[in-house]
Amino acid sequence: MRACTVGGVRIGPGAPPRLMAVLNGSPESFFSASFLSPDAVRRAADRDIDAGAAILDVGARSTAPGSPPVSVRDEAARMDALLTELDGSGYVISVDTMHPEVLETCLRHDIHMLNDIGGFRNQALVRRAAEAGLAACGMAAFESPGDPLGVGATLDALRLVLARARDGGLTELVLDPGVGLWTPERRVDHDWELCCAFDRFATLDHPVLAAVSRKTFLGRLVDRPAEGRLAASLAVTQTLLDRGASMVRTHDVAETADLIRVRSRLEACP
Fold it and tell me: Which of 165, 175, 218, 252 would suit a FRET pair with 228, their CA atoms being 20 to 30 Å apart?
């Protein structure tokens, strides 16, 4: 497997599991307790870095089913306000957007990675990220985020994501299989199928992101709202790490860092 380097942080072979902290600037988020206003984002960033995050993933629009749309202009303004508060921090920052106009705003600030749930379908976005020297995380997508159904389709979509990345000049890559109810056709069984076969995504020779934090498929199983899904999130995260995940995107950095620390100790058992 090829490693990926993001702002000096190595992901994949030769590195421990990395934590990507969610910094959520969208009041429409499915997990409302995670929302951060600009005046709170630096404190949250400091807390998450101290707790063990290697990368901060900043986003300003919700992609959860049923969320109200946010205009590109509003998303860009939100991102600008959030990133302004992080300028000069020295932290490694990822920006979660599908829009080249938003990325252009983000590039006024100290950023290191593009996180694109659109699977690099927008080549203008990909080329601009490559020109800026960003690393990138691409989610499985044919025509829209999360539209593959099942493991086979997800593998095919991720191969397409890699081809789009190559065409646009991106070289430092992480792959996201796209667990979540992204489209009306998606069912929670599809998410469980992806989790059960997670080791197959590492065969594509790039680090794989586990992004399951507090998602709906967990809530359906344990019958809890997003606020009550921490234990379920940690349980699945443990399994995905065992099945090859190189990085974990999480709302709960301290707790996930504890999981990784305990897992590492157990792996050292004689």
Answer: 175
Q: What is the pLDDT of residues 157-194, one digit of tens each?
A: 999 999 999 999 999 999 999 999 999 999 999 999 99
CA gap 122, 100 in Å, rounded: 8
Give percent helix, percent strand, percent coil of the chain, each to the nearest 5. Answer: 45, 15, 40
Q: Which tokens hold the place of 103?
A: 């990325």
DSSP 69: P
What domains can you pick out in the chain, each with its CATH number? 17-267 (3.20.20.20)
Say if residues 129 and 170 touch (Cβ distance below 8 Å): yes
Question: Which structure tokens are listed for 229?
Answer: 């899904």
Residue 189 burial by Cβ neighbours in a 10 Å radius (0-12, 13-18, 19+): exposed
The pTM (predicted TM-score) of the whole model is: 0.95
The pLDDT assigned to 35 comes to: 77
Helix extents (H) in the chain: 38-51, 72-86, 100-106, 123-131, 151-168, 188-196, 216-222, 230-242, 253-267
Q: Where are the beta strands (DSSP E) in 97-134?
A: 113-116
Distance CA 148, CA 151 (A): 8
Residue 32: per-residue pLDDT? 64
pLDDT at 25: 87
Q: Give CA–CA dist 11/206, Å, rounded.
A: 9
Intervals of the chain under pLDDT 70: 29-30, 32-33, 65
Name the H helices within 176-252: 188-196, 216-222, 230-242
Phi first, then psi, for residue 137 (nearest 5°) are -115, 125
